[in-house]
Specification:
This protein has 491 residues and is α/β, with parallel strands linked by helices. Among the domains are: 2-129, no CATH class; 143-229, Rossmann fold (3-Layer(aba) Sandwich), CATH 3.40.50.11270; 231-323, 4-hydroxy-3-methylbut-2-enyl diphosphate reductase, catalytic domain (Cobalt-precorrin-4 Transmethylase, domain 1, 3-Layer(aba) Sandwich). It has 14 helices and 21 strands. Helix 6 (211-219) links the parallel strand 10 and strand 11. Helix 11 packs across helix 12 (356-367). The structure holds iron/sulfur cluster. Residues 142-145, 206, 229, 231-232, 297-298, 327, 329-330, 466, 489-491 line the site of iron/sulfur cluster.
């Protein structure tokens, strides 16, 4: 205490929150033309202050053309001491746990240009300090994709030391880092059966394969690991069953989706993929009374509504699938993003701005009237983006690197008290109905202040997931929900 009072007496003032102050950092050397952004700051009164927003300050400085380095600054003092060391510009803010965080930048004492840039960068961020909520839309990867990734991991472990190569047939959906990790452990991703030799392992991913591919894998003496999503497997089996019964099978979906071949190949010569209303008008079938349709897993159910209605209009006796067999993952994902966007002032879409999924998520947010910004790194966030913003939606696209969402919320937490919430729409199948669960905010961190806690989500006994129980026959047709934007999934 005596030391703290002495420091205050010596400096005549304590740091004011939100006011940028200049100090001196003894012993810290910064080359001219460069700015050092402290990752931690030794406050003589409060001890070590974390600087979670350091990547944001660094981003501002890099945009101004400065080289940036990061380091801890163990102590600082009043510039009136005229001692040796870097000039340091600091502002502090409160944290959600009642602690204090700092935003700071240091430059060589005689580098006036860099000093002006450093002070300006800290001031810009000081202007947007405040209490905020970050509302996460969760992972973009469905249960089927995660199961397939786990199957590949297990196959690699099981084959270790046996001289067997693990091949993954076709596209393996998953985060780029996870796929890179599997490849670094020896898996051959995106390969074909021709790449494998007798004794090797072939993994069929979530979207499944055709019977011909399976037969060829067996004939080549490969060990098959079948990671086909159960919902895709059901659609494959159902297509075969309908064709055996003499039905013409219409698959409402996209021919270029990876699951399409595996499904239509079960009804060889009796299956047609239709994507649009126009496609239903040109459909040729042998018997208009023997037409059934299936929904392609992996695309939002709503997207097939118009084509299904057109099919019903043209073939009144058409039969459709039981809703228990639907894959709800893409619809739930789209609805989750809409719900998060509707409750946010700004939607940060994480990933590559050129990637289709990131563009689709941005479009979903904008359709809800919410500004969307695609970012691939916390340093791309600018003070202007956050001006007047208190609720920030965060939607990870499939091109977002692993851990990016955590980096973003960590950086935002350096701008004042931040509550991190997760909001998710989940369709669950009960014994006799399908219930879209009302979105609730699941607190991702510690306990939320009472005012920020929303009502809990509705509970339901069973979940629509890749391992759900599936019906064994098609039903008379039923109406589908209204269309929405597609969100990529694993099949
Ligand atoms: S999108 Fe649906 S059907 Fe496709 S893998 Fe995911 S859960 Fe399975």
């Amino acid at each position: 205490m005596r030391a703290q009072r002495a420091w205050r007496r010596a400096n005549g003032r304590a740091m004011n929150r939100s006011v940028v102050r200049e100090f001196q950092a003894p012993g810290i050397r910064v080359p001219r033309g460069e700015v050092l952004v402290p990752a931690e700051l030794g406050d003589p009164v409060r001890g070590a202050l974390s600087c979670p927003a350091a990547p944001l300050v660094a981003g501002s400085l890099r945009r101004k053309g400065y080289r940036v380095s990061f380091a801890a600054v163990p102590r600082f003092e009043d510039p009136a001491h005229h001692g040796d060391g870097a000039a340091l510009y600091v502002v502090t803010c409160q944290q959600r746990d009642g602690g204090t965080a700092a935003l700071a930048a240091a430059v060589a004492p005689d580098d006036r240009l860099a000093a002006a840039a450093a002070r300006s960068a800290v001031e810009e961020w000081a202007g947007v300090l405040g209490t905020r909520r970050a509302i996460s839309a969760g992972s973009p990867w469905c249960g089927g994709a995660r199961q397939a990734l786990e199957a590949v991991r297990r196959a690699i472990s099981d084959s270790a030391g046996q001289g067997r190569v693990v091949h993954v047939h076709g596209q393996l959906a998953g985060p780029p880092e996870t796929r890179a990790e599997l490849a670094s452990r020896g898996a051959v991703l995106g390969g074909s059966l021709q790449d494998a030799v007798r004794g090797d392992v072939i993994v069929f991913p979530a979207h499944g394969v055709t019977p011909a591919m399976r037969a060829e894998a067996i004939q080549r003496g490969l060990t098959i690991v079948d990671a086909t999503c159960p919902l895709v497997a059901w659609a494959q089996a159902e297509a075969g069953r309908l064709a055996d019964r003499g039905e013409h099978v219409v698959l409402l979906g996209q021919e270029n989706y990876p699951a399409a071949d595996g499904i239509t190949s079960r009804a060889e010569g009796r299956a047609t993929v239709i994507a649009t209303v126009a496609g239903t008008s040109t459909l040729q079938v042998a018997d208009a009374r023997r037409v059934s349709y299936l929904l392609q897993p992996g695309i939002p159910i709503e997207d097939s509504a118009a084509a299904a209605a057109a099919l019903r209009s043209r073939f009144p006796a058409v039969r459709g699938p039981h809703p228990d067999s639907f894959c709800y993952a893409p619809s739930d994902r789209a609805e989750t993003v809409r719900t998060v966007a509707a409750g946010s002032d700004l939607m940060l879409v994480l990933g590559d701005a050129a990637a289709a999924d990131a563009r689709q998520l941005s479009a979903l947010a904008r359709d809800c009237g919410t500004r969307a910004q695609v970012i691939a790194d916390p340093a791309e966030i600018t003070p202007a983006m956050l001006a007047g913003i208190s609720d920030i939606g965060i939607a990870e696209s499939t091109s977002a690197r692993a851990g990016l969402a955590g980096e973003i919320t960590a950086a935002l937490s350096g701008l004042g008290p931040l509550s991190v919430l997760r909001r998710q729409v989940s369709t669950q199948i009960t014994d006799n109905s399908v219930i879209p669960v009302r979105p609730g905010d699941a607190q991702a961190g510690d306990a939320t202040p009472a005012a920020a806690v929303p009502p809990p989500p509705t509970a339901a006994p069973a979940t629509a997931s890749p391992d759900q129980a599936l019906p064994d026959q098609a039903l008379p047709d039923q109406a589908l929900p209204a269309p929405g934007l597609p969100v990529p999934a694993a099949s």
